[in-house]
Amino acid sequence: MSTIPTVTLNNGVRIPQLGFGVWQVPDDEAAAAVRTAIEAGYRSIDTAAIYENEVGTGQGIRQAGVAREELFVTTKLWNSGTADWTGQAGRDAVLSAFDDSLRKLGTDYVDLYLIHWPRPMHGSYANVWQAFEQLLADGRAKAIGVSNFGQEQLTRLFETSSVVPALNQVELHPHFPQHELRAFHAEHGIATEAWSPLGQGKELLAEPPLVAIAEKHGRTVAQVVLRWHLQSGVIAIPKSVTPSRIKENLDVAGFELDADDLAAIAATETGKRLGPDPQGFDWN
To answer: Is 80 inside a domain boundary?
Structure first.
């Protein structure tokens, strides 16, 4: 089993650099997928309220038989009602949503809790962040962060709170490497985590330069891309429900991408997102 490197967040909490994501995994399949991932060696599991699989995820965690303190569990606050989540009533709504996630997961804390989308057109995320600070102070969330935030939203949090987000989870892969945002994160001590690190398995994994690099190292293209994330200092959370691929995605030790490999990967950048632009995303 590969040894997974860890990243130390800005509050001292350590997160495995390679985790297991359960986006689009149905709740009735999540338990088996999570159990398989943990048995394969994953110790970080990433879910969200909107994925509607927190119950299955929690079942899989318990079925795997690994001590809770050895696992790193992330979930996320969904947008529902956040346009109006202002004042104390808004903060109470956040705490209620968090309690619901804990109940579904069957745990009394999470290692990381994220605001899923900023919805900047409403501006309530700064108030939501105050509730997150309370969860951090209470120890029910060991670390707090955000997802899909841009520099403007992060700067506002710096101006309104003394707690800097530990992590920002964003779309990131060789086609869309987020150079500017990653530099901003590094400047402010925020870890970068990639969702859809494999580009959702679309054109990215068929890129001829990546295929050539995979052949050179005797690896799969997915392993090459995940190795690129690790060498870039990015945390990645690939998803699969296929046991062989779950294990394969974890096996990224034992080889190193050289300067030529990295240059070839950099040349595949397109600057195109697969998901929505967070600055205009307002799905409730």
So the answer is: yes
**Alpha-carbon distance 163 to 149, whole Å?**
15
Q: How far apart are CA 149 and CA 145, in angstroms?
A: 10
Q: Which of 51, 109, 113, 125 is catalytic?
A: 51
51 is catalytic: yes
The residues near 144 (Cβ < 8 Å, ≥ 6 apart) are: 112, 113, 114, 129, 132, 133, 135, 136, 163, 165, 166
| 203 located within any domain | no
Q: Give domain status of residue 215, yes or no.
A: no
Domain containing 37: what range?
6-198+234-240
* Domains: count for the chain: 1
pLDDT (average), residues 21-32: 95
Query: Does position 218 have pLDDT exceeding 70, yes or no?
Result: yes
pLDDT confidence bin for 1, thresholds 50/70/90: very low
Average pLDDT of every residue of the chain: 96
Does residue 224 lie within any of the structural domains? no
Distance CA 275, CA 181 (A): 16
